[in-house]
Known about the structure:
The protein folds into two domains: 1-88, no CATH class; 101-171, no CATH class. Helix content is 83%, strand content 0%. The chain has helices at residues 4-46, 52-69, 75-87, 91-100, 103-111, 115-128, 132-140, 143-150, 153-170.
Amino acid sequence: MLPENYLFTEVKNLIVKARHSAARAVNAELVLLYWQIGQTIRHEILRGQRAEFGKQVVRTLAEQLTVEFGSSFNASNLWQFVQFAELFPDIQIVDALRQLLSWSHIRIFLRLEDDLKRRFYMEMCRIEGWSTRQLEERIDSMLYERTALSRKPEEHTAIERARRSTMAKKG
């Protein structure tokens, strides 16, 4: 005969696991949706430019979407979606990101201006499985800067040269 709590515990664990899986699936779809919205605005409306006309179009679009779908689609968020699409133009990278990280993680990454720093924290989140709170704490503690300073100068110089070379090829 099984202990009385065993059945409850087993069923409870199944429910918690299913809820967690559902939340991850929903988040992955939202990340893809936000990227697609950003890409659409970027390519179809702004044509890659943020002219005054584009700002008005996004403002009008945000008003319409907010009425229909709520405040998640306000102008500020739409601009974040555009920024997301600009920083990560490759759908394969977005597919990988959306499986590993939440939209809250990505919003934090969007605030980081240095691409090398952003990639460092993204990789650390992937390896360490950081929550957004942990990510914020690591950024606030300047983990990237402390890690860069602790490296041998030659290594840091080589990484910086590679980064600049990549940037020059893009530009």
